[in-house]
Amino acid sequence: MGTGVPPSHSIVTQIATAERIAPIDLETPLHDVIDPDALDRLIASSDHGSSVHTVVVEFTYYGYTVQVNGAGAVEIRPAEQTTDSNSGVDSTEDAHGD
Questions:
Q1: pLDDT tens, 22-71?
Q2: What is the C-alpha to C-alpha distance for residues 83 and 30, in angstroms, rounded to an integer?
Q3: C-alpha to C-alpha distances, 97 to 1, 16, 24, 55, 72, nearest whole angstrom
Q4: Which of 9, 16, 47, 64 is most exposed by smallest CB count within 10 Å?
Q5: Do the Cβ atoms of 36 and 30 come closer than 8 Å?
């Protein structure tokens, strides 16, 4: 993880900043949507130097689409469709290579 900050922590911090609230004030905890420890372990265990396998995890949390890549970089953007802005989940893990 490039910054030394676990992706789960970065997700909560970025969304709280975007919402202009303290992370503790997020109504839905991250663990209600995805297992933060499993996410952090997955990213920590990914082979950062490999061009053969790419890990990308994407899901919806708190009205944002969250994307975490194998290097631990977190990108959030407003979700295009939101039925319940606090709880939609769409997780993907892509591995490319032959």
A1: 999 999 999 999 999 999 999 999 866 665 568 999 999 999 999 999 99
A2: 18
A3: 22, 36, 40, 12, 20
A4: 47
A5: yes
Cβ atoms 27, 70 nearer than 8 A: no
The whole-angstrom separation of Cα 49 and Cα 47 is: 6
pTM: 0.75
Dihedral sign from CA coordinates of 12, 36, 96, 48: positive
Bridge pairing between strands 64-69 and 56-61: antiparallel
Tokens of 27: 């109504």
- SS3 of residue 9 by DSSP: helix
Could you give the CA distance from residue 63 to residue 84 in angstroms, rounded to a whole number?
Answer: 8
**C-alpha radius of gyration, the chain, whole number:** 13
